[in-house]
Amino acid sequence: MSGSPANEPDLDLIHVNVASPAGAYTVGSISFFRYILRLGELGLPLSLADQEAVDVLLAIPHALGPEEEVAFVSGRGWRVVPAQGEMDWPVLEATPERLHSAFERARSLLWTHAARFQVSAGEIASIEEELDAVYGVLMRAEAAGVAVNVSYVA
């Protein structure tokens, strides 16, 4: 998607960082970003619980985005923390359990609606591989009793 409008990230160069003091992982899959993090933008009818999970993922900020676009928002088990200085960037801070739940719901919704959005088997395999790695980070963070930070760069 090179040449995307200025207000949309260049999906060819997207990286999602999931980090905690217990470990980190960087997701480089365009499909993960499009079908998991931005699932809420696909116009699916969602239950209240699904909408809560999607809201968590939609709140993940662009690390290098304009400061005025980063709102201090929060929900059950998560919050967006704006950059604290020039050498800092905004992040979604969440409990590992809350993030795991949000990713699981997004995964379930993707499986349910994959044909509707013509998600290929290769894209699903890539997403599953990335989710497994992210779940590993979340499990280590949960075991250590620490929060997880998530942001993306495009």
Number of H/I helices: 4
Give the amount of beta strand, in percent.
Answer: 15-25%
Strand order of the largest sheet: 2-1-6-5-4-3
What is the percent of helical residues?
A: 25-40%
Mean pLDDT: 86
**Which stretches are low in confidence, meaning pLDDT under 50 for 5 or more residues running?**
1-7
Determine the N-to-C terminus distance. Answer: 12 Å
Question: Structural class of the secondary structure composition?
Answer: alpha+beta
Number of strands: 6
Largest sheet: 6 strands, antiparallel
Count of domains: 1
Given the C-alpha coordinates, what overall shape results?
globular
Order of helices and strands: EEHHEEEHHE
User: For the CA atoms, what is the radius of gyration?
Assistant: 15 Å
